[in-house]
Design a protein that fits this description.
Length: 275
């Protein structure tokens, strides 16, 4: 029977010992190369990956905050172009003035406001075509909402628009109120003349000028049902808007001092009293 020469006792020993020596040598050399000579080196060796992770996380956070946010960018658009239908008083559609609701429905928002408008989603675009809100919604605003959704729909913070901590002068209120009025202009029109038989006018409004307290309450709480303005009946709904006391004071002061109205001034204290 044929035997391999290295299987005899003598040759087997001479074969095994060199192999063991070689294996042990590789293990020692490999360990020496992989292990740092000093414990400080070990901590410094792990630092770059930890720093890289922290930098990546910080970059991700920074990129999120630099993009559009709900309170800073998206909610003002919703107030101007969606609030007539999507508000807290409606029963059959979502209240997009609420962040949690808008966040939950964010992908449908993108589909309705961007994809449908671009022809890549089968449901009707929002706002409804040829409505005052649709006309008021710009291409840039649609793209902003799309970007907000794709960036993770961050809530953010309201953009500071009133500078300074002290009381505002009447002129400052009017200037700030003019900016806020964009949320009203889709229905009441930039001219304040409203839409015949649909939205009542603010320009020269006997309903508005006769009762400042009532006007404040409507902006805070909204209104449903019939109103008579300048002898014309209107039956529609106005949602409450998520504005601060200062913002409501400013927008009403702007309206009262525009469109041929009475020139009244509204204070944050008067608004607070109606909450």
């Amino acid at each position: 029977m044929f035997r391999f020469p290295f299987l005899n006792r003598h040759n087997r020993s001479s074969f095994i010992l060199p192999c063991l020596s070689a294996a042990l040598g590789c293990m020692i050399i490999g360990h020496a190369q992989s292990a740092p000579a000093d414990p400080k080196d070990a901590s410094s060796a792990s630092t770059p990956s930890a720093t890289s992770s922290q930098t990546s996380e910080a970059t991700s956070t920074a990129s999120t905050t630099q993009g559009p946010t709900y309170l800073g960018d998206v909610q003002p658009i919703f107030m101007g172009s969606c609030a007539r239908c999507h508000n807290q008083q409606t029963r059959f559609v979502y209240n997009w003035l609420d962040y949690k609701t808008a966040y939950s429905d964010r992908w449908e928002l993108k589909r309705r406001i961007w994809d449908s408008w671009k022809g890549t989603y089968y449901k009707e675009a929002m706002p409804v075509a040829n409505s005052p809100e649709s006309v008021a919604l710009t291409d840039e605003q649609r793209l902003l909402i799309k970007t907000w959704v794709e960036d993770g729909a961050p809530i953010g913070e309201p953009r500071p628009q009133v500078q300074g901590a002290g009381p505002l002068s009447k002129e400052d209120k009017i200037a700030h109120g003019k900016q806020l009025f964009t949320a009203c202009a889709a229905c009441h029109q930039p001219t304040g003349k409203g839409l015949p038989n649909v939205f009542p006018p603010l320009a020269g409004s006997d309903f508005l000028n006769s009762n400042k307290t009532r006007a404040i309450g409507i902006v805070i709480h909204g209104k449903q049902g019939e109103v008579v303005v300048n002898g014309q009946r209107y039956s529609n709904s106005m949602p409450p808007f998520p504005l601060s006391d200062q913002d409501i004071a400013c927008v009403l002061t702007y309206v009262y001092n525009s469109f041929g109205n009475s020139g009244l001034e509204v204070t944050p204290e008067e608004v607070k009293a109606q909450r």
